[in-house]
Amino acid sequence: MFHLLEIVAFSIAEPGACGAAGDVIGITADGKTYRLNFMRGNWTPDTLRMVSPVIADARIGVFGQGDYSEGWTSVYLGLGNHLYVSNSFFTRFRELVTAEQIQSKGELYQKWQDIIHAALSENNDHPNLDRNEEVPEYSPINPAIEHNMNRMFEGTFSISDLIEPKEK
């Protein structure tokens, strides 16, 4: 049903973020781009962990305060958008961001995927990496989101916290 993805970088748009709230965009080591929306459909912590444990459990803080995932560097992109880059990849990512002369969070928000793909092209000798985006059809809002929304304001939270099914 689901396949574990070898993610090297991902972004999370928290509920209420500017852009597509609930969107998660992940780029794998082989250069493929995947998108899911944890606020839509029937995602549970277990199904999300089948795809990527790090995405399911990364800690998110309002305004980027407290963003954390072991082995990853977080970068707050502004307006409720969070970026995580694997520590093994972050130095090259930072060098390319500097080379691009990116001056603002908004500019980084727009270019981070291209920068990751450029770095992957260098590392894997794949100059034309595939950019397949798996864009889901929008379905009803996951009922767990409304039940768990208050967790966003209790400190850091993970996507798993927000999509945990309501106890019966």
Plain-language structure description:
The protein is α+β, with helices and mostly antiparallel strands and 168 residues long. It has one domain. It is 33% helix and 18% strand. Strands 3-2-1-5-4 form a five-stranded antiparallel β-sheet. A hairpin with a 4-residue loop joins strand 2 and strand 3. Helix 3 packs across helix 4. The protein is globular and about 50 Å long. The two termini are 26 Å apart. About 7% of the residues have low confidence.
Short description:
This protein has 168 residues and is an alpha+beta fold. The chain has helices spanning 45-51, 53-57, 87-99, 105-124, 143-148, 159-163; strands at 7-13, 23-28, 33-37, 72-78, 81-86. It has a 5-stranded antiparallel sheet.
Uncertain runs = 126-136
In what order do the strands lie side by side in the largest sheet? 3-2-1-5-4
Mean pLDDT: 85
Strand residues, percent: 15-25%
For the CA atoms, what is the radius of gyration?
A: 16 Å
Distance between the termini: 26 Å
Jot down its keywords.
5-stranded antiparallel β-sheet; alpha+beta; 168 residues; 6 helices
Q: How would the blueprint of this fold be written?
A:
Layout: E1 7-13, E2 23-28, E3 33-37, H1 45-51, H2 53-57, E4 72-78, E5 81-86, H3 87-99, H4 105-124, H5 143-148, H6 159-163
Antiparallel strand pairs: 1-2, 1-5, 2-3, 4-5
Helix pairs in contact: 3-4
